[in-house]
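Example (one chain per record):
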Amino acid sequence: YYYVMKKYLFLLSAMCALTFIGCSDDSETEKALVGNWLLTAEWDGWVNPDTGKEEGELDPYTYDEAFILILDKDGMATCYWDTSDPNDVDSAPYSYDSSTNTIYLPILYDSDRVIIESLTDDQLILKCKYSTSIGDSAEGFEDVTIVEKQFFSRM
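Predicted structure:
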């Protein structure tokens, strides 16, 4: 009986340890967001109503066409809109929501939250989806889902 109980106790201890090790720390994502980011490309597209897939084009940027986004640890976002003009700058608060993996970044987006599609040590991809109507009153309007992505590299 002692031998069997010892095995169960060991198994229970191992499961508890794995539970704590396996949990991700939301603050790690928040820490990874902090830094200086250079816009390297934008992807503009839509959701094809026939296939449900996102379609669009990637538009790479040169350094002179790009802007710099700085996210600080205190929740402030600063954009240098012109990489050659330090006076062309705006700042606004930002916040991260770990339950939806989104960032509230009003300095860049009008929508409430933007999806963090990817975040690595050297790249950040933000994705925004919204619905709109296109067309005119003579031919009618069609509802479409627009998708925009911004690709940033850490500076």
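Caption: The mean pLDDT is 83.
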